[in-house]
Amino acid sequence: MSSIIFTIQQGVSEALKSLYGQSLDAMEVQVHPTRREFEGDFTVVVFPLTRFVKKRPDEIAEEIGAFLVGRTPEIGSFNVIKGFLNLSLANTFWSHFLQEISGQPHYGQFQANGHKVMVEYCSPNTNKPLHLGHVRNILLGWSCSRILQTAGYEVFKVQVINDRGIAVCKSMLAWLEFGNGATPESAGIKSDHFVGEYYVEFSRRQQAEYQAWQQSETGQKVYREKAKEGQTPEAFFKEFVNPYFNEYSELGKKATDMLLRWEAGDPDTMALWKRMNNWVYEGFDQTFKALGVSFDKLYYESETYVLGKDLIEKGLAEGVFYKKEDGSVWIDLTDAGMDPKIVIRSNGTSVYTTQDLGTAHLRYEDFGVDRMVYVVGDEQNHHFKALFEILKRMGEPYAAGLHHLSYGMVELPEGKMKSREGTVVDADDLIEEVIKEARLNAKERGELADLPADQQDTIIRRVGLAALKFHIIKVQPKKWMTFDPKESVDMQGQTGPYIQYAYVRINGLGKRAEREGVDLSKANTYLDIQPAEREVLQLLYQFPQIIQQAAEEYDPSTVANFCYALAKAYSKLWHDLSVFNAEDPATRAFRLQLSRVTGQVLQKGMDLLGIDMPDKM
Fold first, then answer.
1. Alpha carbons 321 and 393: distance in angstroms, whole number
2. Which CATH superfamily is domain 4-89 in?
3. pLDDT in tens, 506-532
4. What is the mean pLDDT of residues 52-59?
5. Residues in CB range of 168: below 8 A, 6 or more apart
6. Which value, in Å, is the radius of gyration of the alpha carbons in the chain?
């Protein structure tokens, strides 16, 4: 389908040449959809043209508008508002457009562009279950992957599982010390939640230990020796948490010893580590299945943390890095507005950047991608800025295609979540909560009562997950958001269930038309297009551009808000106009066809967000 925007651009370019003897490349003409408060489909920005034509913008717009209506059959009329040329497309254009996309079941799908992109998302720790923050990460990564695929990219979905380190050892030690041999089965607890409880238990026990130590002779002596002048005990001990853990804590010593044994490959420690991690993986898989997401490959930090050293040695030889007298290796990033960054410690051990350099290179070898998208919270903005700059200086072939999909944190109405204190909203609990709310709403309406229980459960689950997913994805990624569980399950307003309901309404129309054998062949003879119909058609026309924009900007909220706008426009059409009971066969055929295509686009758009549409609500 040729772009009407390019047709308009060419028309304006021809108008400049014909009316004023001026040449301008068509692609330089600015055209965008007309704002809803004005009449028209597309708007030409006339102000830049005044550099060619020494007239007022309004006068230029009037003359170009008249030229276009006389020469371009796709344009039916125009109006000028404060120097902006608003063009209304001819009804025949919209009729032909609807007929064209009616025969395209995959409308919005782009052809393969030959580019490969990797999307990393989720990347959890194995010391606790997935929580609300992970849910936003997962939904952004999954929907971005679907959007990029639809935009023509070959996409590989991956995650790095942080399965090593002191946090993992804390949960291991707590189970060893206080678990009494319990298992997820014996405790009757989902396996990742089971492990997470021991991480919280470690924190609770260490906090009690720390409180007692503060009152001890040793603790008071440390306070007297190390406190700043005038610093209260409360302020000092609040700052002294990490030094206490590393230097004085018995639990801290045991956890550190366990980490050292793990790094040395101690058989008993490794066996415990594998056992508890496998519990967590079983739990993760259940949550991923509930959310409807998957991965093409998993990377494990226990296998990747040593990567990158060879690359850094090569970079040292090429002058990318430099070595200090203590043996540590650095890179000078001051000319890029950052401080020098260490990549190898003086004792020869890796830092996170070392690992990430190696992992990026490994992924390139695995998939041959020319783009890598990292879905990670905005607290890591500086890390990824430095990482990308280093990879660029190392001359990695994919360095120009690196992107950090930075997203804002999710807070509760009460404030930030804290894993160690057990104040997070677990992903599983959240899923069950929205499904429970959807079940209550369905029971109140009673519209599913005649269906078998398994069908009711399927529909209710789809509605609940739509409420959860849409509530999160509709927010622009960079924005911080407060997640209010009550608001997320509201079945009215700008919600996933609202869009699902519009689809269900359309689906019911289609089934009725099939049952009654309605003839749609006369749809192309209907030309009396009403404002409510035109608004839906305008949005349908924008769908491919919406997908392209969302892919380019790595922003699924673009698609989410488009779906809501389309559902809202269709609801307006439903209330303003008769569809099935339209006044004549051509009108009914056109509106039924428009409804069917709208349903297809809504289903496609929501599928890009990982949201399934129900047949009934």
1. 10
2. Arginyl tRNA synthetase N-terminal domain (3.30.1360.70)
3. 999 999 999 999 999 999 999 999 999
4. 94
5. 125, 126, 127, 162, 273, 277
6. 30
